[in-house]
Amino acid sequence: MSFFESLFGQGKTTMIAPEDALPGRESPVLPAPRPHTVLGTSLTGPWEPDTRVLYLAMGCFWGAEEIFWQVPGVVSTAVGYMGGTTPNPTYEEVCTARTGHTETAMVAYDPSRVSEEELLRIFWERHDPTQGFRQGNDVGTQYRSAVYWTTPEQGEAARRTAARYQEVLDAKGYDPITTELRPAAEVGSFYLAEDYHQQYLSEAKNPNGYRCHATTGVPYPDAA
């Protein structure tokens, strides 16, 4: 057993079987989300008709969301739980690794202003997609890397950029990418996290709060 498994519990690095997951609840933990603290937009839409949504998991969702709300062309962001079994989980439940969810950032964007490739370049570069069920000192299945897409174009971009990034990681001696690549419709619902998690690192909330940006330091090959 590793140091981190002994510290956090071995079960936190093993995906829970659906039949063993926590039961959850029928009602959402955030029934009436406020507007985005930074962008002033809705966290749930509706947005302009051409807006697309991509779900990205790259460790602690506080820092992940902050990265993407600063990208020109991003319309809104939100944090929540996705990829598991438990309906409408709480943060405390997700932290037990008994819901199967990963901490996820929802990114709503205008494709005429920012492309899927650009968002995914940022995604690959701003975390370490080879670490499995952890990012840096954050250990557990909730911290796994994932891309959940809502359009065929996003799916193609996710697979293509993952393959390209793997090539440069191989050249640097890194392990294989462990990022989960799946369509959102297959994964299931995105459950909004509690209000205090939304835009947690904004000036209005916790501008000096915790950020985990474990990275490989390897630039995506198309980056300048």
Automatic annotation (TrEMBL):
InterPro entries assigned to the protein according to its UniProt record, in alphabetical order: Met_Sox_Rdtase_MsrA_dom (IPR002569), Met_Sox_Rdtase_MsrA_sf (IPR036509), MsrA_MetSO_reductase (IPR050162)
UniProt keyword annotation of Cell wall biogenesis/degradation present: no
Reaction(s) catalysed (UniProt annotation): [thioredoxin]-disulfide + L-methionine + H2O = L-methionine (S)-S-oxide + [thioredoxin]-dithiol; L-methionyl-[protein] + [thioredoxin]-disulfide + H2O = L-methionyl-(S)-S-oxide-[protein] + [thioredoxin]-dithiol
Limits of the Peptide methionine sulphoxide reductase MsrA domain: 54-211
Sample GO molecular function, one term: peptide-methionine (S)-S-oxide reductase activity
Entry's EC annotation: 1.8.4.11
Family listed: Belongs to the MsrA Met sulfoxide reductase family.
Job of this protein: Has an important function as a repair enzyme for proteins that have been inactivated by oxidation. Catalyzes the reversible oxidation-reduction of methionine sulfoxide in proteins to methionine.
Official protein name in the record: Peptide methionine sulfoxide reductase MsrA
Species in which this protein is naturally found: Myceligenerans salitolerans
